[in-house]
Amino acid sequence: MSAPEYRWQPTTAEIAAAAGIPVSEVIRFDHNTSPYPTEWAIPIAAALAAGLNEYPGASYRPLRKAAAGYVGTIPERIAVGAGVDELLLLTGRALLTGGRCAVAVTPTYPLYRISTLQVGAELVEVAATGPDLSFPTDAVVDAAGGADVTWLCVPDNPTGARPPDESIAAVLAATDGVVVLDAAYAEFAGDRWTTWTDRHDNLLVLHTLSKAFGVGGIRVGFGVGHPDLVAAIDRVRPPGSIASLSVEIAIAALGNPARMRAQVDGLVAERARLERELRRLGFRTFDSETNFVLCQVGDGVQELAAALRRRGLVVRVYPDAPRLARMMRITVRSSDENGRLIEALEKELA
């Protein structure tokens, strides 16, 4: 049986060409990336440009130190990778080979399934419950008891919801396996997980700089956990998978949490406005603690998404996921960009 592959979204240039519009007219409401520009990174990149003939230092000690300072731990408890995506794949290679078993709540981020199946492990999928796709605590606790890895997305993608602390604690207490908590949207929920990793040697928390920090293009993520878990990931990490430019920009971003928090505050306020506008248009929105909003559209969601794309407005739809097939996920962007989307929705729904 062939291993599953991640299904990439079309590039911005491809979308523009298909719509017959300039690339500058395309707005990605489907990637959950930041609308804030990164001019602050230009002098950092310029200073490093003359030395790109050399490889980065493979230990990434300065990056580990910066990440440790941000979350409040020591560098020995930090694993680094080319985004959370690489860390998820590395975790599968480190912990799931040899016919082991993993658990995930569905629907969720597809890379958990891919990371599990690509190494030949078994995946037990536990369905979210009810029309709100709520976290099924009892069922996850039962399944996690026999699992080597339990994948948790907190807050969740695609719903935007955050399971309560009590549910996460119950899962940790129920398993001797590793709980991998993907905290890509932690800053939007106000989550701080370091003390949890201090208390639970089987908890690995993954963070990214793509969302709240707004530097998705550099592809940097890091994990926080017991040194044994960090060592297991380091044993399977390729040398030099994070570029020199990415390392230095990541260190600068981690060293300026005030800028990140200002961006998060702006997006949270804009999210509330976007939710109000979507409800005004008749859509049911899911409560979100992220930088995106999932909304119930109905049977015409695919046609509506296609019409928006012809205008250069790209939203996320799920034609191959039965429980999400009538839904649309929308990234929170700038006030002007969100306004353009709402105006387009009004015209298409008229």
Write the layout of secondary structure elements.
Blueprint: H1 12-19, E1 27-28, H2 42-48, H3 61-71, E2 78-81, H4 83-95, E3 101-106, H5 111-117, E4 122-127, H6 137-144, E5 149-153, H7 165-174, E6 178-182, H8 186-189, H9 194-199, E7 203-208, E8 221-224, H10 227-236, H11 244-254, H12 257-280, E9 284-285, E10 292-296, H13 301-310, E11 313-314, E12 316-317, E13 327-331, H14 335-349
Parallel strand pairs: 1-11, 3-4, 3-5, 5-6, 6-7
Antiparallel strand pairs: 2-8, 7-8, 9-10, 10-13, 12-13
Helix pairs in contact: 3-11, 4-5, 4-10, 6-7, 12-14
Count of DSSP-assigned helices: 14
The helix-strand sequence is: HEHHEHEHEHEHEHHEEHHHEEHEEEH
Note the beta-strand portion.
Answer: 15-25%
Report on the biggest sheet: 7 strands, mixed
Overall 3D shape: globular
Distance between the termini: 47 Å
Spatial ordering of strands, largest sheet: 2-8-7-6-5-3-4
- The low-confidence parts are none
Key descriptive features of the protein:
single chain; 350 residues; alpha/beta; 14 helices; 15% strand
Short précis:
The protein is α/β, with parallel strands linked by helices and 350 residues long. It is 41% helix and 15% strand.
